[in-house]
Amino acid sequence: MKKKEVVREIANQTGIERNVVEDVLEDFMATVKKHVVNMEYISLSGFGRFGVKKRAAKTGRIISRNIPVKVPAHFIPSFKPSKKFIEEVKATVCENWAGTKESKQSIAKTCYVSKSQ
Fold first, then answer.
1. How many angstroms separate the CA atoms of 60 and 55, rounded?
2. What's phi and psi for 99, nearest 5 deg?
3. Cα separation of 18 and 11, whole Å?
4. Which helix (H) or strand (E) segment is 95 a member of?
5. 20 to 30 A Cα–Cα from 105, which one of 30, 58, 83, 90?
6. pLDDT by residue (tens digit) across 12-28?
């Protein structure tokens, strides 16, 4: 789903004009970016937490030339979904994909494990 589709869906559900919804969404994203860049976390209860993760220095490889390359330590933006969000996704996936070809493979194993715990 793209941003335009998100804006359209929110506008349809709320009755708010699309341009207003788009402005609010843009402001939300700008706020998240601003705080994450400043090494702050943003927690949205029931949804998840935006933040920064540090990646350690490592040795990579240019595969085409088989040359080792040093990758310095760096920071990346991250999102960690809440437990509630994770459980909702698991439940929905297990319900919607039951009986499909894919469920007979890895999804069935995941659903079986999560239900038995």
1. 13
2. 90, -5
3. 5
4. helix 83-96
5. 83
6. 999 999 999 999 999 99
Task: Give the span between the Cα atoms of 50 and 42, in whole angstroms.
Answer: 5
Residues 25-48 pLDDT 10s: 999 999 999 999 999 999 999 999
Specify which residues 67 forms β-bridges with. Answer: 62
CB-count burial class (<10 Å; 0-12, 13-18, 19+) for 7: buried
Amino acid at 38: N
Neighbours of 21 (CB within 10 A): 19
Residues 6+ apart with CB under 8 A from 59: 68, 69, 70, 71
Evaluate whether 71 touches 57 at the Cβ level (below 8 Å). Answer: yes
Tell the burial category of 35 from Cβ atoms under 10 Å away from its Cβ (0-12, 13-18, 19+). Answer: middle
| CB contact at 8 A, 25 and 3 | yes
pLDDT band at residue 104 under the 50/70/90 scheme: low
